[in-house]
Amino acid sequence: MPDTTWVAAVAGLRARREAGVLVTVAAVRGHAPRKAGAKLVVGPSATWGSIGGGNIEAVAIDRARELIGGHDAEPELMEFKLNDKVTNRHGVQCCGGAVTVLLEPLPVVPAVAVFGVGHVGLELARVLARHPLDLHLVDTRPDMLTDERLGVLADAVARIQVHHTPLLPETVLEELAPGTHVLIMTHDHAEDAALADAALRTAGLGSIGLIGSAAKWTRFRHRLATEGGHDEAAIDRIKTPIGLAGITGKEPAVIAVSVAADLLLTFEQDRR
Length: 272
Fold this sequence. Notes:
By secondary structure, the protein is α/β, with parallel strands linked by helices. The protein is built from seven helices and eleven strands.
């Protein structure tokens, strides 16, 4: 039976939102400590699995930690000759063979929280679910979050977490990972206003977007300043209208594509 320790390790890194590197023995020529396919997962402070120990593993871990600490890391191959004539960083391995190791970075994926899973919210979830990210869907209405309605997300690439919050959806903000991008598009302007206020009070969030018209934003901006006590710089963190400026269609699917495209640009900026 194949060793599945690495599968659980990768899932654990994803759940903790920690970067890592998957190290795989890609090819073996001659004698080597492990066969092709052996895997090791390297996290910021721990490792799981093994590619055979010794110099191969130690060097691979060193390089993996460099990739974890870098930006825009790409998969790469490392070659090892296992004989007593090779000067190795972490001791001699003289099995007599040669090993090729593949290092695949496992970055922390973006996180998005959509507050309000109505017509636009569901269309947006359908688009975002096709991307590797953590997607939170939040609504106070249970009928918006039924298994039948969310069945269109069954084949999602994203890791989806559904939050039914009948009374205070803003409490979900405290549960979100640092850097999570927030989109406020509920069915209730009072709910939107409470979420906008709470989002500005929640440290560590990424971008904050609010759906709505210019008239709605004028009212919200006044309330955030007078009742919420937020200064102009804080209020300017909220982007409204959301989406790409050049796309003006009002259909839910059009708005969803526009907002998703704008988010993808934000993800690119975050990576850089």
